[in-house]
Design a protein that fits this description.
Helix content: 25-40%
Strand order of the largest sheet: 6-7-8-3-9-10
CATH architecture: 3-Layer(aba) Sandwich
Number of strands: 10
Largest sheet: 6 strands, mixed
Distance between the termini: 35 Å
CATH topology: Rossmann fold
Radius of gyration: 18 Å
CATH superfamily: P-loop containing nucleotide triphosphate hydrolases
Order of helices and strands: EEEHEEHEHHHEHEHEEHH
Bound molecules: adenosine-5'-diphosphate, magnesium ion
Number of helices: 9
Length: 254
């Protein structure tokens, strides 16, 4: 029988900034190869949720399990190992501007995985090739388009050999004509079996890729279900209103 343990299990995460209760108890599970999409209004806590899952910010409450094992984030080695397994893609790419594409991808395998430079380079080249940037490896971020920069950041995450990828609105900072090339890379990852938690408001893309959509508002998952249900036939009024709005904005994207 297939292993039913979720790759990632998030249990009752709570997080406040001062008096602002941003996450009010969020739980979710990612099964191997599963793709879950998070949608919801701005300020609802989507980015904070992903930051908490990666321990970029401390949790006030809650537990996170990778392959059934709870992550004790104040054990530095455990956290470093965990972060290699849980890759993170940001809206604004987060590349090192003073390093070219190749070095942006190489630096993790060298510094964190302690791979010999030649091996790290080989891996970095392969990942850049996988995202279609073999011919742009020596370019600096300032010389790349937004779509290319986001593909470098995906290659950088892949070079760490992650089991899960967290993607926070990976195409929202891109000009419309550059969105497709990033979606194509994400689709390739999906067909390769990558487990993903993706925040996006690209309705066509989300509905073709996700096995489940979470509607998140005001720090809580309000409703969850298969894409067709959440996007087009939700039970909660708030989910329906929100989906109607993003549907009008994004219904031509894929
Ligand atoms: N580093 C931070 N410091 C203080 N408040 C923050 C910080 N990050 C997010 N917030 C607040 O948390 C709330 C949720 O933000 P965010 O997680 O970015 O929502 P979303 O990604 O859904 O738009 C907002 O009220 C925002 O102002
Ligand atoms: Mg956000």
């Amino acid at each position: 029988m297939a292993d039913q343990t979720p790759v990632l299990r998030i249990q009752n995460i709570k997080k406040s900034y001062g008096d602002n209760k941003v996450l009010k108890g969020v739980s979710l599970e990612l099964n191997r190869g599963g793709i879950k999409v998070v949608i919801g209004p701005s300020g609802g806590g989507k980015s904070t949720l992903l930051h908490c899952i990666n321990f970029l910010v401390g949790l006030d409450e809650g537990r996170i399990y990778l392959n059934g094992k709870e992550i004790i984030h104040n054990r530095k080695r455990e956290l470093t190992a965990y972060r290699q397994k849980v890759g993170m893609i940001f809206q604004d790419f987060n590349l090192f501007d003073h390093l070219n594409a190749l070095h942006n991808v190489l630096i993790g395998p060298v510094r964190v995985k302690k791979l010999p430079k030649s091996e790290a380079r080989e891996r970095a080249v392969a990942e850049l090739e996988r995202v279609g940037l073999r011919d742009h490896m020596t370019k600096y971020p300032a010389e790349l388009s937004g779509g290319q920069k986001q593909r470098v950041s995906i290659a950088r995450a892949l070079a760490m050999d992650p089991e899960v990828m967290l993607l926070d609105e990976p195409t929202s900072a891109l000009d419309p004509e550059l969105i497709g090339e990033v979606h194509e890379v994400i689709r390739d990852l999906a067909s390769g079996g990558m487990t993903m938690l993706l925040v996006t408001h690209e309705v066509g893309f989300a509905s073709s890729l996700a096995d489940e959509i979470f509607f998140m508002e005001d720090g809580k998952i309000v409703e969850q279900g298969p894409p067709q249900k959440i996007l087009f036939n939700a039970e909660c009024d708030r989910t329906r209103e929100f989906c109607a709005k993003i549907g009008r904005l994004h219904n031509n994207s894929s």
